[in-house]
Design brief:
By secondary structure, the chain is mainly β. The protein has four domains: 93 residues, Phage tail proteins - horseshoe like beta roll fold, CATH 2.30.300; 104 residues; 79 residues; 60 residues. The strands form five sheets. Strands 1, 2, 3, 4, 5, 6, 7, 13, 19, 20 and 21 form an eleven-stranded mixed beta sheet that branches. A three-stranded mixed beta sheet has the order 9-12-11, covered by helices on one side. It has a three-stranded mixed beta sheet with strand order 16-15-17, with helices on one face. It is globular. The two termini are 29 Å apart.
Length: 359
């Protein structure tokens, strides 16, 4: 399963400055809703690329077409002679989502620019547009934040409803929190014919009709567990008031019936004064969600000829994993690729439950 890499470097204006084929090492880390990390090592360069040079890394599996594995901005340049007297140039790059990380929400609190309510995608696009996109020049923003050559994809109003406020916070941190509560993924990609034109978009994981199991040899070291030591199945939410006048709401989860003794009680407060019944119910539901029995499954994804990363499945895809009669829906949350000087490739893939933190 020979894999080949090729690297192109462009100036911020979009002019190609380097074609790199003599590669001594590449490390690429993809993680959902986070900035890619790219480390590239080559023996020498004819000239030093400038900051924010655009680095494109292409990957090709044997018998297939080239595809773009990663794109990043050059942020750190290192030129050295190793202990053996050999020259080594290292380029440290950050993925395109770094454009969002470079902005913060710089509006006064309690305004239309900080308070949001709507489908997760709508909220995310509004925050990005008003702080990094074409709409980031509003008079009430502390400074003009329009990002050169960055546009936004149309709003499809996907995701569950998110309501809240984000103020004086890094933009990437803010929208990551919204995405987590809405089950969405976002990214920045190149768009148009020029390498220096970028598009921010929200999307959903693609569910693949693929099964991963020890039967097919594409997973190893599977571990299943269910943790119930700290379980709570009944919660009473305490509202305002005192004595018999104190407002309370008790909610029981169906798992309290799993055994004659599994009705395990807990208490929690709702801090808002005069909280509504709906707010108390939301508090109870959230509490129980985090305190009932927790199933966990982990495994190592194995590269085999019929199930290869970059061909049958890709970063952010959702897969079905089976183990001893149990089935688990898992999303590819993180991919780490390491290519050494002999072009030997190592791939580590992290799977997480759909909707977990970071996924």
């Amino acid at each position: 399963m020979a894999t080949i890499y090729q690297v192109f470097v462009y100036s911020p204006s979009g002019t190609r400055t380097h074609i790199l084929s003599d590669i001594r090492g590449i490390e690429i880390t993809h993680k959902i809703n986070d900035v890619d990390e790219i480390i590239l090592r080559v023996p020498a360069l004819t000239s030093t690329p400038v900051v924010d040079s655009i680095v494109e890394i292409y990957r090709r599996l044997d018998g297939l077409e080239w595809y773009k594995e990663a794109v990043g901005f050059l942020r750190t340049f290192q030129d050295e002679f190793t202990e053996g007297g050999r020259r080594l140039v290292t380029l440290y790059c950050r993925g395109l989502l770094d454009l969002i990380h470079r902005r913060s929400i710089l509006y006064p609190s309690v305004s239309a620019y900080t308070l949001k309510s709507g489908p997760g995608e709508t909220v995310i696009l509004e925050y990005v547009n008003e702080n990094a996109g074409p709409g980031a020049s509003a008079a009430t923003r502390k400074r003009d934040g329009v990002t050169y050559n960055l546009t936004l994809a149309p709003d499809n109003a996907r995701g569950t409803t998110w309501t809240g406020e984000k103020v004086w916070i890094n933009l990437l941190d803010a929208i990551r929190d919204v995405a987590l509560g809405s089950g969405l993924i976002f990214r920045v990609v190149q768009t148009g014919s020029a390498v220096n034109q970028f598009l921010f978009e929200v999307y959903e994981s693609e569910e693949l009709d693929l099964v991963f199991s020890t039967t097919y040899g594409n997973i190893a070291m599977p571990v299943y567990s269910i943790q119930r030591a700290d379980e709570s199945t009944v919660v009473t939410v305490l509202g305002d008031g005192e004595g018999t006048a104190r407002r309370t709401l008790t909610v029981e989860h169906s798992s309290s019936l799993d055994s004659p003794w599994n009705d395990i009680e807990s208490l929690t407060d709702v801090h808002a004064k005069e909280a509504t019944l709906s707010e108390m119910q939301t508090k109870a539901d959230g509490y129980l969600k985090g305190s009932i029995a927790e199933e966990d499954f982990s495994c190592k994804v194995v590269q085999v000829p019929t199930f290869r990363y970059g061909e049958e499945y890709h970063f952010t895809d959702t897969l079905l994993v089976q183990f001893l009669g149990r089935s688990f829906q898992r999303r590819i949350n993180r991919v780490y690729l390491n290519i050494d000087a002999e072009n030997a490739e190592r791939i580590d893939i992290e799977l997480t439950q759909v909707g977990e933190a970071g996924s």
